[in-house]
Specification:
With 254 residues, this protein is α/β, with parallel strands linked by helices. It has a single domain, classed as Rossmann fold (3-Layer(aba) Sandwich), CATH 3.40.50. It has seven helices and eight strands; from the N terminus they run E-H-E-H-E-H-E-H-E-H-E-H-E-E-H. It has an eight-stranded mixed beta sheet with strand order 3-2-1-4-5-6-7-8, sandwiched between helices. Helix 1 crosses helix 6 and helix 3 packs parallel to helix 4. The protein is globular and about 45 Å long. It starts with a strand and ends with a helix. The relative contact order is 0.15.
Length: 254
């Protein structure tokens, strides 16, 4: 039995993956943004061990969530599943868009502050291929609300998530660290017209969370639906970009 934490698991693919892992006999901790969503998650996945609460758009709340996680027994796997796609600039207390906080800052801060698990998964997307590769303004502090674009910001954040997987895989050879592209699936984020098969996504979540299949005993890789590997753009291997992103995140988050 593995102990698994999935952020952003009150609905969507995070919740579906949690339910499947519970069915497999694992101890799963859910995460929700607030009390209401936590109650919904508990009702939807009654076999979950626990539900942690933390608003990932707030840096102080992210750090508090890290403290909550470290107060638990060590996790075998942490899946950084939480993410935003649309919603406008939605400025956080730190003055950056909520999407940048949830999709980029939160997985970085949690990874650096939480006790290291055996396996780490960063949620990405095929849309990472359209993300800016210069990393000149990863948190939109220079472009600001006047130049904000939901799609551009989302693509950039999904590129960041692959860079995280590559960078931490190099730093931590004792930990399997990978990126996961679940495909375009009909969830609240994906929309009703999405053509992807949820089962294809869930199978990949499961093999990376369990870490038992030979195909999952790798690190620094990019996984897609149906447990397939590969497909990231070549810029993801650029160690200079990886280090630039980590430095920017460290300076912003402290």
């Amino acid at each position: 039995m593995a102990r698994i934490l999935i952020t952003g698991s009150s609905d969507g693919l995070g919740l579906l993956a949690a339910k499947r892992l519970i069915e497999h006999g694992h101890s799963v901790t859910l995460h929700a943004r607030n009390d209401t969503r936590a109650k919904d998650a508990s009702s939807a996945a009654p076999g979950a061990e626990n539900v942690l609460i933390g608003d990932l758009s707030s840096l102080s709340a992210i750090k508090h969530l890290a403290e909550q996680i470290n107060a638990q027994q060590p996790y075998d796997c942490i899946i950084h599943n939480a993410g935003l796609y649309r919603g406008g600039f939605n400025k956080t207390p730190e003055g950056i868009p909520a999407l940048a906080a949830v999709n980029t800052v939160a997985p970085y801060v949690l990874t650096t502050l939480v006790n290291r698990p055996k396996r780490l998964v960063f949620l990405s997307s095929q849309m990472h291929a359209s993300g800016a590769t210069s990393l000149s303004d990863p948190f939109w502090q220079q472009r600001g609300e006047a130049k904000w674009n939901d799609l551009t910001a989302y693509c950039e954040s999904k590129f960041h998530n692959v860079l995280f997987a590559k960078a931490f895989a190099k730093r931590w050879p004792d930990c399997y660290v990978n990126a996961l592209d679940p495909g375009w699936v009909a969830t609240k984020m994906g929309g009703a017209s999405a053509p992807g098969d949820p089962e294809a996504a869930i199978q990949t979540y499961v093999i990376l969370a369990e870490g038992e299949e030979e195909g999952a005993k790798v690190s620094g890789k990019y996984f897609r639906p149906w447990k397939k590997m590969g497909g990231e753009i070549s810029e993801c291997e650029n160690q200079g970009l990886q280090e630039k992103l980590l430095k920017a995140c460290a300076e912003f988050s402290g």
